[in-house]
Write a structure and sequence with these properties.
about 325 residues, alpha/beta, 5-stranded parallel beta sheet, 8 helices, binds NADP nicotinamide-adenine-dinucleotide phosphate
Length: about 325
């Protein structure tokens, strides 16, 4: 087994702090080399790329690369076509990332459950209309995607007393969560929900899943929360669904083009809240143990944790 204790880690991100990651990795490895951006004097010796996006030059010059570790829970921000095909790719699992995603989901769900979105509209019109509060048990929330993040969102909402349903590719048994699979499962689930949250990975199968055909199965006045990726949503179809009353309001953390262009019709739309891709944030100190474990696996030639399954696409 080839198990060098001095990994050479290449780092590239405009979102994450290289200094924080260097410090975090120092808690895991007695010795390691850390190269950032274009500053790599011996590219042949790079073992692992820890990246949010690819550098302009790509990763080709790292001819002995053994693993690509995404700094995100998703991998779509990486230009997959430009990645060396023979090098395994893994996504990030981090307790802080999951926790911040759960908090975002709860905040957005409560905003709808307690009708703040309606009171925001009313207050802009100096309109004092009483809308009685209801108990969480009377609000049904559907979660698309029951992986690391969707599962925790479902449990957190259950703990708050919401009526929770969830949809995934493979069948799941989750305490007090009604689970669904398949196309029929999806359409019947969304019709039973007042709030639908998307936290799927972006794959060939899930691209544009939030579209006219799916909205047709929504109950009138459903609220949508998209925390997955912008390309899950057909943006023009959302505007139509709002006009038709199928969707009452949408909270969108992601957009097909980020930052959302100035001229985009979502800005200033009274039924749409935009947040600038802030739902989840990883923390090097909580994420580093999983990353270090994957670096050790890569050096030992073992399969990575959270390794991309190329056939599934996530
Ligand atoms: N907005 C943000 O700040 C932010 C931050 C972090 C992550 N995200 C997004 O959240 C996504 C999910 O992250 P995660 O860590 O929870 O991923 P994950 O653990 O891989 O879970 C993915 C879930 O989606 C399900 N799924 C995948 N393809 C499907 C399909 N075709 N039909 C039905 N279900 C399908 C999977 O089903 P199985 O359980 O059967 O495999 C699984 O339950 C990421 O890919 C990223 O896009 C966004």
């Amino acid at each position: 087994m080839d198990f060098r204790l001095k990994p050479h880690i290449y780092f590239n991100s405009y979102m994450d702090s290289a200094d924080e990651w260097r410090q975090a990795l120092a808690s895991q490895f007695d010795e390691f080399k850390f190269s950032v951006g274009d500053d790599v004097d011996d590219p042949d010796s790079v073992d692992v790329a820890l990246v949010w996006t690819l550098p302009d030059r790509g990763l080709e010059r790292f001819v002995n690369l053994r693993a690509i570790l995404s700094l995100g829970a998703g991998i779509n921000q990486l230009d997959l076509e430009r990645l060396p095909k023979h090098v395994p790719l893994a996504r990030l699992v981090d307790a802080s990332l999951t926790r911040t995603m759960v908090d975002y989901a709860k905040t957005a769900v409560y905003r709808y459950h307690r009708r703040f979105h309606l009171f925001e509209r009313q207050s802009r019109e100096r309109n004092w209309t009483y809308i009685p509060p209801t108990l969480t048990a009377g609000t049904s929330v559907g979660v698309l995607g029951l992986g690391e993040i969707g599962r925790e969102i479902s449990f957190a909402l259950r703990r708050e007393g919401f009526n929770v349903r969830g949809w995934s590719r493979s069948p799941k048994e989750l305490d007090n969560v009604e689970t669904y699979t398949g196309r029929y499962g999806l359409t019947s689930m969304v019709g039973r929900c007042a709030i639908v949250i998307n936290v799927l990975p972006l794959t060939g199968e899930t691209r544009h899943i939030l579209c006219r055909e799916l909205f047709a199965h929504f109950s009138n006045g459903t609220c949508l929360i998209n925390m997955g990726r912008g390309m899950h949503l057909v943006e023009a179809d959302l505007l139509d669904a709002i006009d038709m009353g199928k969707v009452d309001d949408a909270t969108l953390d992601v957009a097909s083009v980020e930052p959302l262009p100035d001229s985009h019709p979502f800005w200033n739309h009274p039924n749409i809240l935009i947040t600038p891709h802030v739902a989840g944030a990883s923390n090097p100190m909580t994420a580093v143990a999983n990353v270090a474990a994957n670096i050790r696996k890569a050096l030992a030639g073992e399969r990575l944790s959270q390794q991309l399954d190329v056939d599934r696409g996530y």
